[in-house]
Every structure is written in structure tokens, then in C-alpha cells.
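pipeline: protein-struct stage 2 | run 1193 | SDR family oxidoreductase
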Amino acid sequence: MSERVAIITGAGSGIGRAVAARLSRQSCSLGLTDIREDQLRLEADELATYADVVTVSGDIGEEATASQLISRVVGRFGRLDALINCAGITVDGDRGGIESVSVEDFDLVQRVNVRGTFLACKASIPHLSASRGAIVNVASVSALKGMASTAYPTSKAAVLGLTRSIAFQYASNGVRCNAILPGPVDTPMLDIANRKGVSLVGRPGVIEGPGTADEVAGLIVFLLSDDARMINGAMLSIDGGLANA
């Protein structure tokens, strides 16, 4: 990945921030977006020692945010080699059975997790086709396991469908698109899951966790690399064995 150009959504914290740190150390140029402008500014300052960084703060569920980000990155660096979709949310109202989830909460989660991923992919594809680049979408093991929440696993299952469609549609252009399915990761989102009373760790057959954002970032960077040239349309779990338990 040395000296390539990558865009990361949800870059202000958690997995997105860890990916940005890893890629910056490989001298990649970065386009970062997050809804939290203050966190983006701090992150850009931290990464400036290693990388040239463009930031756009805004709601990735808005088409204008994705378009502005891609336009600024390509305008600045002249190309785009990788897209990493880390932006995602869950909400406190997404707990218990489906009857307890409000339509508003359900729509909000789909807007960020599904629509945001779709918009970033849609705006990036022409440039990734030109560079024969790669996409990694962050899904979740919850897309494969029955869980107490409703909106979040539904959104992540949709991301898997989107990933496979893009992988099929653009393989002839040299574009690879894969999804990773993290289990519990030590990020702010795990705090929300714990508040919802979701039991994610301590199960038989599961490596003691949670995992770290940097461990997940390592898998993402591998999937973007030339070593992963023949990996396309894959769903790779990084969950300590939770999907198998």
C-alpha cells in the first residue's frame, strides 16, 4: 500500500482511526471523513508527520458529503486507490425484540450504515476502476448471528449484499471489493452494545476478547495490498471464533 491514495469513512475513532494510522505509516495519502469535525482535525494533526491528509466533516449518509470527499481527494492527489468504509452506528433504542425498535431508530441506522456505504462506493467506483483499486466494507459478525438487536444486524447484512454485488459487477475493471466481519472490538461502539445488555464475550469456543481496532486494521490493510490480489467478494470474520460458536 506504500504511497497510494485511500479514503476512510468513519475515520474519527475506532477502526477507521486505526486504519488511518497504519496507512499513514506506509506513506499513503489519505482522505478522511467523519461527522465529528473536532476529532478529524486532531487526527489530521497527528497524522501530518507521516501523511498528506484531506478531511471532510459531514454526514456520510448525505450524497453531498461523499461527492465532496471524493472530489477533494482526487483533485488533490490525482487518483484514488482504496476505499475503506468504517462509518457505522448503533443506537440505544435498538434493543430487545423488533416490536420495541422505533421506525426512526431503524431508519437512522440504515441511513448511516447502508446508505452511507452505498454512496461512498458509488462515488468512488469510477476512480477505483481507473486505478484498479480496492474496497473494504466493515460489516459485523452480527450479520451472521441471531442477536437481541434488530436495526444494526439488518444494516450489516445489507452491507454484505452490497459488497458481493460490487465485487461481481466490477471485477472486470480490476476492482476488488471485500467485507470484514468484526466481532466485539474495544471501541466506543462496544460500550453501546454493553449498555444494551448484549453478551458478546466469554462464550465457549471463542478466543477471549474483545479484539483491538489495530488488529482489525491489520486485516483491512492486508486486503488492500497486492498480496490479496485474488481475494474478491469475500466475507472475512475477525471475531475470535464467535461466528462459529
